[in-house]
Each structure stands twice: as C-alpha cells, then as structure tokens.
Amino acid sequence: MRTTLIGFTMALMIGLAGCCSSMKGGWPCCSKTQHAGLSLPPPPPPREFRAAWVATVGNIDWPSKRGLSTAQQIAEMRAILDKASDLNLNALILQVRTSCDAFYASPYEPWSEYLSGKQGVPPEPYYDPLATWVAEAHRRGIELHAWFNPYRARSNAAKSPDAPDHVSNTRPNIVKQFNGWEWLDPAEPEARRQTLNVIMDVVRRYDIDGVHLDDYFYPYPEYLTDKTTKQVADFPDDASWKRYQDAGGKLERADWRRDNVNRMIHDIYLGIKAVKPGVKFGVSPFGIWRPGNPEMVKGFDQYEKLYADAKLWLNEGWCDYWTPQIYWRINSEGQPYAELLKWWIGENKQGRHIWPGNYISAVNDTPKSWPVEEIIDQIRVTRETPGASGNVLFSMVALMQNRKGLSDLLKEGPYAEPALIPASPWLDSRPLAEPLTQATVLRDGSVQVSWENQDMEEPAQWAVWARYGDEWRFSTYPPMVHSLRIVPADGKRRVTAVGVGSVDRNGDANFAPPLRLGARHDRR
C-alpha cells in the first residue's frame, strides 16, 4: 500500500521534530557529526529489543476477562498495541497456548476458556485472535512472538471442564493429574509430538516473528505439594520410567528427565529452522540455573527441580534469543541482577541475543511494591552490560495501568526514542534493496519526504534519519507509511539532510544515500 495515512501524519510531524530529547541511563538516538558536509553518512541506527509479555492465562493481560464479545476483545487488543507503539516497544510476546488450548483455530487443541469462558467454544462472532494480533502488530511495525507453554495441560485455576477434544480426553495415557493440575509427561514420545505439532502448525500457518517458551518444564514443587500433609510428591511418571529401564536405558532418573526436556528443545529449534529459518526461537528460563552460579547466588535450582538444563541449551545455541527471568532487584543479596545477567552472558557460547526478563509486575499498590525507579535502573544496567541488547517486561498490564507512573518514566527516559530490533546475522544477513527517496523543501521550511520500496519483499518497517545542522535524529515508521512531513526543530532549525532505510524482518537495515537539502527543490 503506497499511501500517506492522515492518522500518522500529525504524529510524524511532531515526533521527528522533537525526537531528540535526552535519554536517561542509555544511548542517545541523536548523533552530532563533526561538520555539516555530506561526506559523513548517518550513524548506525540504534538497536535494542524492547518487548513485553502479554499473558492470557487467567486473563492476566488479555482479554481482561472471559466472555467478552469479539468487538471488545479486538478493542482491548488494539489498545495494548497502541500503548506498545506509544512506548516505542518493538515486540510483544503473546501467550497462545496456556494449557494445551489455543487462541487460534487449531486442528490439534481446543479453543481456550480464557476467550469465551468455556474451553472448546470459539469467539462469537467468529474471528481468529492470533491472525488478528499478527496483522495489527505488523501494521504498527511491531514484532509478534507466539508464546507456548509446552507441558501444562490444565491449571488448578481453570473453571470450565476439559473439552472433548482436549488431550486429557483424547490421549489420557500421556497426561498426569495431581492437585487439580494436568501435565503432559515429558517422557512420552506422543506428548513431545503433540507439543511439536502444535508449534509447527502455528509456524507454518501464521506470519509470526518468533516462537517463545517460558520456564514451565517439569512442574514446580509447589504444584506437587499435598495441601494437607505439605509433602512434595514426585512427578507421577513411574510408567514411562519403567518402560525406559526395561528398554535398557542407563541414565539416572533425574538425568533421564533432563534428557526428555533437552530433546524437546532441540527438536523445536530444528523444526522451526527447517520450515521458516527466519522465525526466531526464544526461551525464558528461571533466572537462576543452579545456586552458586555465580558464586554468591542462592535460590531455586531449576536444574534439579524442573529438570531444565537451561545452560546446555544456551551453550549449544538451541535458540535465537535468551530471556532469563531475572526477577530480583539490583541489590538483592542472593540474586543480584547484574551478576546474574553477566553469568548468563558468559554462557552464551554461540553468540545469541541476551534479552533478560524484568518483573515490572512488582511495581504495584502492595506494601512489598518495588519503587518504580528499580525498573528504569535495571534497563540501565542491561544497557551498560556488554553482551546484552534488550529487555522483556512482565507483564503488559502494568504498562496499561501506568503503575506509579512507570509508563511515563519509560517514555520520558530509556524508551523516549525508537530503536530497531537487533539483527540476527546467523539467520539472514541480506538486507532489502534501499528505497527510492525524494525530498522537497517547502516554503515554510518543512520537508516533504517520500519513498518507494525497490525490493520484491515488503519491509517490516522504515527507518529515517534527519539532520538538523550537525545533529542526526532517528525515527521509525510502519510499513504502510511512504511519506512524511518533517517540520523545523524547535520551530527554527531546519532539516539539512535526510536518509530513508528499509528494514527487513530480520532487523537488517539498508539506507539510501542521504539527500542534501538546500533551497526549495526536489532530490531523487
């Protein structure tokens, strides 16, 4: 679509003209050259992954409650995406499978109860939520990652009965039940196949930018704890364990369980790359691998309790980005944020992206609330740590509610200016063709800029550098925008040069040579 949207025009006129407010605790998106000549090109575009999780289980983030109409669900969806765009986020991670259910039309699993209120019942009137989320996100130049829970089949907080086509009814032999929970047995080949089929179906049929797994592998001990005796039961996999032993298996039981999860992670990564290599695979494990790593760290042992050898997956590069949930404060005595982040970066043997997760839900109205400045400081620490290039915030509702002014602080501070998503050169390094650009200086000193795509592939977004005197300013625009008007900065300083770049789905940017602007004229 080659059109200028009226709705965008005012924002473009205002946004680019004032885009160079100072950034607290991070890099600026403006750059001053040493002289005004065009021999110096614009600086490299700023890059940082800025994302938030959109949790659907329990209606945490979206939809706000069960049983909303289609129109209400879509309105809430658009409000979330508009807020993300306003905050200069460049990705959202949407939970599409909470408990062997689906937020889309799945041939493998029933519709989620968190939509209609009853599992297996589609939205009315019918629409496909995931397809709509993808389209609406891309229309704003925002990536949409599909978040799957790989093993949970039912939460003890679920209200509706399992649908007839739920895996607990169609394949009860691979589902284990305890304390109101249902869980796929990771040792069962059919269970791994179920999860892999579900994920690959979404990769094939939807234009998602990433696949995301959270920290739920084997269940947390509290899920296995008897409410009366307070005793922690073992995961009920005696049948699959005996079958493994009878077949000649030699691993110890804990190692066998870890091997089951390792196989699934590896299969998902290879499966995605075989079908759509450009779709990123990300994992957000518990923030501590094992206590004592690094030395001062204390706390929960995911290796021993969840049977998740997360360090191995990162060491081997079975992912494209890594989002450890470092849900503690910077000065936490046993779980210091900066030291945990550095430790994970040290385990990044294959050079993948490190984008830690941050617990913004801790900013709330309870006596234990974190000060809002803690989140700003954690983003600053991430930026100051070599090897990290972004953050993922849990969860979106805190931003929608602007808790304690958090959204305002982000917009005024670290997220005041836009940034491109860091590119993944191991996935693709071929940029799109540079756009054909035209700029016209108008009588009032403003500049009308327009451009045309010169590649067979549509860009994910456009990037624009504008130079006011010796200062470059950066901005980004959705793919359907093909022109904008840039007004003089502060009403006085005029644009002396402009460069437009095409940005592909991998984050690669290719800028046309900047156009020097003098008196009123066209440049092509």
What's the helix and strand layout?
Elements: H1 6-17, E1 31-32, E2 49-54, H2 70-86, E3 91-97, H3 113-116, H4 129-139, E4 143-148, E5 152-154, H5 167-170, E6 175-178, E7 181-184, H6 189-205, E8 210-213, H7 238-246, H8 253-275, E9 280-283, H9 302-305, H10 310-316, E10 321-322, H11 337-346, E11 353-354, E12 357-358, H12 373-384, E13 390-393, H13 396-400, H14 406-412, E14 436-441, E15 447-452, E16 461-468, E17 471-477, E18 483-486, E19 495-503, E20 509-511, E21 515-516, E22 522-523
Parallel strand pairs: 2-3, 2-13, 3-4, 4-8, 8-9, 9-10, 10-11, 12-13
Antiparallel strand pairs: 1-17, 5-7, 6-7, 14-15, 14-22, 15-18, 16-17, 16-19, 19-20, 19-21
Helix pairs in contact: 2-4, 6-8
In words, what does this structure look like?
By secondary structure, this protein is of the alpha/beta class. It folds into two domains: 6-46 and 427-523, Immunoglobulin-like (Sandwich), CATH 2.60.40; 49-412, TIM Barrel. The protein has 14 helices and 22 strands. The chain has helices at 6-17, 70-86, 113-116, 129-139, 167-170, 189-205, 238-246, 253-275, 302-305, 310-316, 337-346, 373-384, 396-400, 406-412; strands spanning 31-32, 49-54, 91-97, 143-148, 152-154, 175-178, 181-184, 210-213, 280-283, 321-322, 353-354, 357-358, 390-393, 436-441, 447-452, 461-468, 471-477, 483-486, 495-503, 509-511, 515-516, 522-523. Strands 11-10-9-8-4-3-2-13-12 form a nine-stranded parallel β-sheet. Strands 1, 16, 17, 19, 20 and 21 form a six-stranded antiparallel β-sheet that branches. Helix 2 runs parallel beside helix 4 and helix 6 runs parallel beside helix 8. It is globular and about 80 Å long.
